């Protein structure tokens, strides 16, 4: 019975903790992959820095943009840093980033890039524009 209870608890925990976070209504970015660290800039100001992810885990990491958007045109820049460990860059053959941008839970953009070029440091950079009424 103890084994059954433990297995049941593990299954329920997985269901509870593996669900994606729901961002507030409005604009947000959901990261599904970020090997090794991601940074998000809004109008050239750093808004978010993720922890350094070891390996290439599946993520459901939301960054809420809504409270930070200014009226008019906003520039969102996403950067991916590869091979980052202990404040130093190391050789890392593979990097991957996959994310989606939403407005009121409707997908408005999707990005998936990967490479095995061995780039360490800044491996990916992309700018998006969002207009807020």
What features would you describe in this structure?
By secondary structure, the chain is mainly β. The chain has one helix at residues 2-17; strands at residues 27-35, 37-42, 45-49, 61-64, 72-82, 84-85, 88-89, 95-103, 106-115, 121-132. The strands form three sheets. It has a four-stranded antiparallel sheet, with no helix packed on it. Strands 3-2-5-10 form a four-stranded antiparallel sheet, with no helix packed on it. A two-stranded antiparallel sheet has the order 6-7. Strand 8 and strand 9 form a beta hairpin. The longest helix has 16 residues, at 2-17. The termini are far apart.
Which regions are unreliable across 5 or more consecutive residues at pLDDT < 50? 1-20
Mean pLDDT: 82
Helix proportion of residues, in percent?
Answer: 10-25%
Shape: elongated
Distance between the termini: 58 Å
């Amino acid at each position: 019975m103890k084994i059954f209870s433990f297995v049941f608890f593990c299954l329920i925990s997985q269901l509870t903790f593996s669900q994606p976070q729901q961002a507030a209504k409005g604009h947000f970015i959901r990261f599904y992959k970020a090997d090794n660290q991601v940074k998000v800039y809004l109008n050239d100001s750093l808004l978010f820095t993720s922890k350094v992810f070891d390996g290439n885990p599946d993520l459901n990491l939301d960054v809420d943009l809504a409270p930070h958007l200014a009226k008019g045109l906003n520039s969102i820049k996403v950067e991916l840093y590869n091979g980052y460990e202990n404040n130093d860059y190391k050789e890392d053959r593979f990097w991957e980033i996959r994310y989606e941008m939403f407005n009121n839970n409707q997908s408005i953009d999707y990005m998936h890039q990967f490479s095995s070029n061995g780039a360490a440091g800044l491996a990916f950079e992309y700018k998006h524009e969002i207009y807020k009424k």
